[in-house]
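Why does residue order matter? Because the sequence determines the fold. Keep that principle in mind as you read this record.
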Amino acid sequence: MASDGLAALPVARPRLDGAWVLPPLAILVALFFYPLALIVQQSVTAADGRRDPGAYARVLSGPLFVNALLHTIEIALAATAGCLALGFVMALVLTFVPFPGARALSRLIDTFIALPTFLIALALTFLYGSAGIANLSIMQMTGATAPPIDFLYTVAGVVLAEVTVYTPFVMRPLLAAFSLIETAQIEVASSLGAGAWRIIREIILPAALPALLAGGSLCLLLTVNEFGIVFFIGAKGVVTLPLLVYGKAIQEDDYTAACVIAVVNIALSLSLYLLYRLMVARAEQGRRGS
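Structure:
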């Protein structure tokens, strides 16, 4: 009886002293909050050290900033949509359409995550650039004097490169989500006459929704802040916010304008992250309600 009474008592969990919060807080302050505060301070400081309260209005109203913002949003949305579509189809095939070498292909796709983004841009330049393999081959066969393929140095080329780089970031959570789906559900639905599209729509897609939200939000954040691909491809007239920060700071030596654009880029990234958290919370509420 005594042992039963002791077993029923709640077990007290050890509580760490509040001082344990200080080391990670100090690291955050040193590596994140302090540099961010310096950027915000510099964004309202002129080159001579005086306050420049009109810096934001001057920079944000300029056509160069508006063009960069529109290009950033356009490329990020298009690349994220491409990553979601391609990642979903590829994860679906790798999971539910078994074929020899599927596991090796999945691991090969994972290696893209470890590669620097500019390597993908370099590979696409070798393939589809003005002096790339595809253009030279077509010019030799047809006798054309100008490269027939010129999409690489446009918004489409940047989107293609980013989709190639970031699709594995969508596939990884999708493959994990698909592995949790019971094959018995699919077999029962198929035996009852459900077609492939209906199975995907009513069984696979609802289970994959959290993974799609996670992978899509990650791709959106990465593409909004992508610098290497846009810089390396050098698309004509395609300037994004990170590239504009580089141009203002390094090429024009205008650190005030660079910091203003950097603050806007940070605010855009944080807004997208908060939107992702809101979507995840609503998705979780919907799943619990159903």
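Residues 70-289 form a domain with the MetI-like fold fold (CATH 1.10.3720.10).
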